[in-house]
């Protein structure tokens, strides 16, 4: 019965060991393209938009604040076809002290709620911190940039997302209705 629940869960599930896919379910394969067997022993890095993004997320999981054994975020992932899409990712490590040893991860395609917009790494950082409610001055201090530079990045984000004001941008970035 447990195998049926895993295989037919309505959300993509994958068991990872040291960031290598050991097993995935039907919905995971449908989300990323192909069949579950196509993912046996695949590096999860192959489903990230860039190696830089893969390393960034890996570094986050090593930070003290994320060593709870659980992690969740919304990020851009890459299908096997190369298409980028927004994905809600949640994971739980079997051993919080070694987050990459073995974990179960869920992947839900949320691209219908959010368009994929090409962002520079700095724009992505500013967007994430903006969604966390930080002011331009607070973001500037955190990134060691002037608040005017942050305002410039925010202006680019407003334009890229077709938002008129900051609350509308945040709504678009988080997928929340206005």
From TrEMBL:
GO terms for biological process: regulation of DNA-templated transcription. One of its GO terms (molecular function) is DNA binding. Pfam families: GerE, PAS_9. PANTHER family: DNA-BINDING TRANSCRIPTIONAL ACTIVATOR DEVR_DOSR. Keywords: DNA-binding, Transcription, Transcription regulation. It comes from the Bacteria. InterPro entries: PAS (IPR000014), PAS-like_dom_sf (IPR035965), Sig_transdc_resp-reg_C-effctor (IPR016032), Tscrpt_reg_LuxR_C (IPR000792), WH-like_DNA-bd_sf (IPR036388). This is LuxR C-terminal-related transcriptional regulator. The keyword Transferase does not apply. SMART domains: HTH_LUXR. The lineage of its organism: Bacteria, Pseudomonadati, Pseudomonadota, Alphaproteobacteria, Rhodobacterales. Residues 112-177 form the HTH luxR-type domain.
């Amino acid at each position: 019965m447990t195998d049926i629940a895993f295989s037919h869960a309505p959300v993509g599930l994958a068991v990872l060991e040291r960031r290598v896919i050991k097993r995935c379910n039907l919905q995971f394969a449908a989300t990323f393209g192909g069949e579950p067997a196509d993912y046996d022993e695949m590096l999860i890095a192959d489903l990230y938009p860039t190696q830089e993004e893969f390393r960034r997320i890996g570094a986050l999981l090593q930070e003290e604040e994320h060593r709870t054994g659980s992690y969740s975020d919304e990020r851009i992932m890459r299908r096997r076809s190369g298409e980028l899409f927004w994905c809600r990712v949640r994971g739980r490590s079997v051993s919080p002290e070694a987050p990459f040893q073995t974990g179960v991860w869920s992947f839900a395609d949320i691209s219908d709620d959010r368009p994929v917009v090409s962002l520079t790494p700095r724009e992505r950082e500013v967007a994430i911190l903006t969604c966390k409610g930080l002011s331009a001055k607070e973001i500037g201090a955190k990134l060691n940039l002037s608040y005017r530079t942050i305002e410039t990045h925010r202006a680019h984000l407003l334009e890229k997302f077709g938002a008129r004001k900051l609350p509308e941008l945040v709504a678009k970035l988080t997928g929340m209705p206005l």
